[in-house]
Sequence to fold (371 residues):
Amino acid sequence: MKIPIFDIKAQTAPIKKLINKAIGRVINSGAFILGDEVSKIEQKIAAYCRVKYAIGVSNGTDAILLSLKALGIEEGDGVICPAFTYYATAGAIARSGAVPFFADIDPRTYNISIDSAKNILKRGKKIKAIIPVHLYGQCADMDEIIALAKKYNLKVIEDAAQAFGAIYKGQKSGSFGDAGSVSFFPAKNLGAFGDAGCVLTNKAAVTEKMRILRNQGASHKNKYKHIMIGYNARLDTIQAAVLSVKLDVLNKWNKKRRDNAEYYNRKLESTNLVTPYVPSYNKHIYHQYVLRARGKKEKIVKHLLLKGIDARTYYPIPLHLQPCFKYLGYKKGAFPESERCSRETFAIPVYPELKKQQMDYIVKTIKEAIA
Ligand SMILES: Cc1ncc(COP(=O)(O)O)c(C=O)c1O
Fold:
């Protein structure tokens, strides 16, 4: 049996007609850049996330970069982010001209460690912002982060790339900070048919800047008058139409992912694998279902792959040990929890279209590997 980590064809099949119709609408309109379709999905996303504004952009990485720029982060400013996340979080910080300051993670949730962030801030560096990442689909401890931000006068950008629709204490991810960045990369819970992303915010001034920044820094009144050094970072109109169809199904998909995760939790209870820890105030959307195997991970993953199950490690190299961030001067051992998670964790398929029979096969194969 072959089981991919994510099955986009199975996801698309039941909504293909609606998507074709939506794409056809854009083709017939002849408008492929911004326009009504983009405004419509922005409003729909803002309502879904319960924020005042959503700004459609080219991808989740640019969503972070544009947020940093719109919030006034400047060359040489320090920005805290976790060492255990996808490259793009810190890549965007570096591309903005700011300096990434890595914090370790909480080994239970895999999200940023508040103590580690506090240690950086106590050292009195020129830190201007913090980017908590809602890794795998559950929110970081936003109350603690907002309290830190108030104390140290930091801007907060939530990297909600993996957590669109996740809930923390009754509030949607991406709606806590000054801005929230989202990725609609095809494999995300809400995925486009190519690259796409958006920024969430409750601030009118940030929204205004962001709309200018994403569109080459051009004034709304005169498109050949460039009032900022901007980017070509608009959300494609065709992607907006695709996202609009998919957003209507997202709650159903996210629920199915949660059900699948609960099924795995029950079936793996008798093993010594660590299943995801979800504090009672969090509603996880399981972009990834990640297990932790002390000492046995390589063996389990190898066996799963051999049996046709696409198990993956997100992420095998923490950011402070990535060659591209060598210039920041971190050494091995700097963030022990991040390093341990890189060695010990792995993700198994949890996508909504998984069948019970496939999940049983995955569980059986994991148990075989442990035995
Ligand atoms: C945590 C995190 N941040 C940022 C990104 C960047 O998103 P995109 O691929 O849409 O640029 C991703 C996407 O994989 C991600 O997982």
